[in-house]
Each structure stands twice: as structure tokens, then as C-alpha cells.
């Protein structure tokens, strides 16, 4: 796993005072990437510019192993949905944005920044959001009023998704298309209908559900990322996203959420509280036991009993999962 923040080298006083973006990098991670032009100016002025940018997407797949699933090039920004099998997002984006900036500046005899700050990278739970994000990206030109239908826009991956032959060999479309049918024709028809169904309709962007400006996924996915890739990281005042993700729910907060669901069953309510407190508060067993008036072994035994019971009681499992979701959703709003 690679844990990467904004570059630490050559930090200036201004850099220290500004909040930095949290980068979570690991092998196989998926991201939604957006990069805008500096001062929101156009970064693509001609079709040649767009063709050159696509050539850097191709070279990113060849040199750095990037897997590009979806792209859309607008005038002042672009969107990518990509995977990093080698866990090297920083290298991939340094290549794409750096090479394109050099090309753009040389062509127009200019210098300085082309992009507005660093790229924005959202870590994605593809099992939950692959379909919605691909549709959101492909409908960008429609929402912007450039075209009436996404197939009328040349500079996105949508045409590759609905035609038999891909526009670019380096584009990976099968992961998403497989979600819409078994054969190619069936899956392409299904995907086209899926996108078409939202044309001229108001719908909430899936990016509205991003947690801590960093992760888009279920509560279980967020917990997995926290436990596997951020465990042991100390809060950093210059990384507010890290502080938000690693903040643990309190015993009191867990107790309130459990009581709201199990208000008519005090015994089960108490057991669920012990179970959740042991797993998610980060507190020592002794502290949890003292709060509930039992010993450390009592906390462990209650937790094990509930774990076994949930395996044979799907209704109970769903209620506990609901509480977990509420704990995380409440943190998304803070």
C-alpha cells in the first residue's frame, strides 16, 4: 500500500497553512479523477489538443499500467474513471498532467500552470458506483448543453460503450458493460438504455455522497479502507480528510443509534452496543467494560455471542448493518 499526501518536499509557509488533499494509494484502487484549468480557463482549445491528451492516456496505460475505464474531455476540465493495478496514482497523474502541460505550453509559447492546483482524486467502491459514475461522466456534455445526446459528443468514451468496435484499444469497457448483460450486443443495448433513461431528468450526482472529500463507497468499504490502509495514521491538522475518516464513534453515539433501533429489546440492545463498541470505538476492553459494568472477558463473550447469532438471523444482521450505516452517514455530514 502506498499512502501519499501532497508533496512534502519544498513546503512553503503558505503550503503549511493550507489544507492538503488526502491521497490513498494501493494496488487495484479505483478513482474518479477531475482536473480543471487554472482560473477555470480552457485546457482544450482545438481537436488536436484533445487528440494529444488522449495519446497521454494511452501512454499512461503502457508505461504505468493505468486502466482507463471512462473518460470525458470538456473544454475547461476532464473526467477519468481509472484503476491503478500497481498502486501508483501519483506517477500516472504526473505523467498525464505533466506531459500535457508541456505540450500545451510549448505549442502556445507560454509558461506557468495550466491546471488549477492538483487533480482531485476520489477513491471509488466500483462494486457500488461503477454504473452510476460512468453514466454521470458520459452525460457531462448533455448537462453542459453542448449536445442533446451523449452519442453526439466525440470526446468521451461513450461511443466506445455503445458501438461494436472501440475507439481506442487501450480503453477498458468490459468491466462496466458486463454489468448490463452477457453478450456484447445485449450489454451495449442495456448500457445505452441505462444512460438514455437519465437524459432530460434531474438526478443527484453520485459524487454528492463522497465521504470526507476522499472516498465514495458503502460504510463497509469506508471501514475497510480505514482499517486496512489508514490504520495507525495520526490526525494531521493540515489533512482534515484524514482526521474525519479516522475519527472513531463514541460509546455514547453508538448507544443512541442502537437504542433507536432496539428500543423494545433492552437485552439485545445492550449486546449490540458491546459488539459495536469493541469493534469501532478503538477503546480498550477495560474502558468499555467499565462503562457497561462488566469485565473485559464479558465484553468479548457478548460480542462473540452476537456474531454467532447474526449468522443465523438475517433480520438481526440487517438491523446491525443499518446502525453501522447511520454511524458513518452521520459522520459524512460533519
Provide a descriptive summary of the structure in words.
β4 (67-73) and β5 form a beta hairpin. The protein is of the alpha+beta class and 334 residues long. The protein is elongated and about 70 Å long. It has a five-stranded mixed β-sheet with strand order 4-5-3-6-7, sandwiched between helices. The chain folds into two domains: 2-220, Alpha-Beta Plaits (2-Layer Sandwich); 249-332, DnaA protein, C-terminal DNA-binding domain (Chromosomal Replication Initiator Protein Dnaa, Chain: A), CATH 1.10.1750. Mean pLDDT is 86; it is low at 1-18. 50% of the residues lie in helices and 11% in strands. It is built from 15 helices and seven strands.
Provide the spatial order of strands within the biggest beta sheet.
Answer: 4-5-3-6-7
What's the CATH superfamily of the largest domain, by name? Transposase IS200-like
DSSP strand count: 7
* Termini gap: 28 Å
Q: What is Rg?
A: 23 Å
Task: Flag low-confidence runs.
Answer: 1-18
Output the CATH topology of the largest domain.
Alpha-Beta Plaits
- Give the C-level CATH assignment of the largest domain: Alpha Beta
- Which architecture name of the largest domain does CATH use? 2-Layer Sandwich
Question: How confident is the prediction overall: mean pLDDT?
Answer: 86
